[in-house]
Amino acid sequence: MKRNAVHGLSVPEFCSLIDKIKSLHESMCRDIRDSFKVTDACDVWIKGQVDRKLPFQEKHVMQQASILGNMEEHGVLKRFDMREKCDNEGLDDESKNDVPAVVEFGAGRGYLTQLLADCYGINRVFLVERKSYKLKADRSLRQKESLLLERLRIDIEDLNLQAVESLRGSPFLAIGKHLCGPATDLTLRCCLSERNINGDVQKCPIQGLAIATCCHHLCQWKHYINKKYFLNLGIKKEEFHAITWFTSWAVDADHGSDLSDVKDPRSHLPNIEKEEDGEDVTPVKDIIRKMEAVERAVLGFMCKQIIDIGRLMWLKERRLDAQLVKYVPPSISPENHLLIAKRET
Predict the structure, then answer these.
(1) What's the domain count of the chain?
(2) Quick one: which of 72, 108, 216, 296 has the most CB atoms within 10 Å?
(3) EC number(s) for this protein (predicted)?
(4) pLDDT 10s digits, 104-148
């Protein structure tokens, strides 16, 4: 549907949209920095000193470790050694209050939480996932005596954190790795919705969040968290859907070589001459077909960043100290945007 809508644009409309994307990217996306952070806290996983029965791939470990490293650098996550805080009867009340609970959205098998539990000493975990998975990390997590684990099998859209009795009123961190498309927006809304904060973010129990976004081509206007941002830029629903479709091009090219030039993406975009009204024009789909893969990929990355900047601005409007960073090189994963935020003190 989105592709057909783009192909149905006139050449002047298509060119105008490309110009608008280039202009918005240049003015709004300058401060997205590279932030590949792997701390020594994750050495047990990085150096392969974990139970080899746990199924994992190195590239996923590097992504998970950098998410946690960025959380630590941003002050969202602290290191806790729960072995020093346990007595014979378990954790005391003071220790429980020191360490916030962690809610992992779109948890899948739960290996981001596994890394977090192994390296940072958390004691309460809630895994939110609508599907059932085999080879989950749950068995290993439940073997940790100081860790309380609860799975919430529910769609994020339907989740009300206030209704989770064991979490109600407790400070928590929200995390998610590769929350596809609208799942990122649904997670932000779930954590910071009006029913949770009653109009005052300082009363919200969330202490911080780290969400690795992905699959922007699946984003939907009805779920997007900051429609006002796009509308104020003169971008309506139809153009938003076109922008989301362009993001699928970001994963088309060879990320080990060509995309090193993404730092100056404008140099790769084609110069498309606008036709005057009334003349025969080349269909937009033919113009797209003639674009080089790297040209499409650069445009796709521009659109991804524009979408995520809107989410970043939404967090800042709620008085959170928030950043958008590239948490791994594209050679590890082209889906490398991380939204990270904490409550301002």
Answers:
(1) 1
(2) 216
(3) 2.1.1.225
(4) 999 988 889 988 888 888 889 999 999 888 778 888 888 887 889
